[in-house]
Every structure is written in C-alpha cells, then in structure tokens.
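Morning run. Coffee first, then this:
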Amino acid sequence: MERRLRETGEWLKVNGEAIHGSTYWARMPQLGEDLRFTIRPDKAFYIHSLAAPGGTLTVEAPVPVRPGDKVTMLGHGRPLTWRTTGGRLVIDVPVAARRAGRHVWVFKIAWSA
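And here it is:
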C-alpha cells in the first residue's frame, strides 16, 4: 500500500496540473476504455491515456485544438508534432516520450492566445 501511495505522489508531481485546478470535459468525459479528458478553462486541455501509447495517439473526438497550439506530454520536455485528419487529432509520440510516462500518459494542449 505504501509503495502505491508513493507512486501516486510521484505521478502527481509530473502530471498534477492536469488534475489540480482542472475539471472534466463535459462534452466528452471519456472515449472508450483508454482515454479521459480534463480542462483548465482558458489555459489548457488534457488527454489522459490509460494505455501506453504507440508511435501515435489518435483521438477520435472533437478536441479543442487550433493551429499554433502547442502539444506536449507531461514529463517529456519537448513539443510533439500533431495534425488533425478527418475530425481526429493525431499526435506523434516518440520513443523518449513513451518511456517518460508511467501508469497514465498525459498530453497537454496549451492554447495559444
């Protein structure tokens, strides 16, 4: 039990901004078994992947992303490339980003002004 609490604390150090001060995305709180969404109004949108992503993460939902927005994975210091195709958001997830995550991989869309 103690180990799990410590792991949860470590996860929150990296991903806490997607939890604290956020709310669920009322439009589509979950998508299938593997994706959940939170939002920090006027700041950022978060995609929580409950399964380890492969080389790409495809979100088949009307995610609020616009040209110029920056997409990152919390815990991985570099911006990720992304595109929208047919109403889907596709994020390229390099090996280094996949290795940086654990338990739940959180992708952040930082909205440009």
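The chain has a mean pLDDT of 89. Good start to the day.
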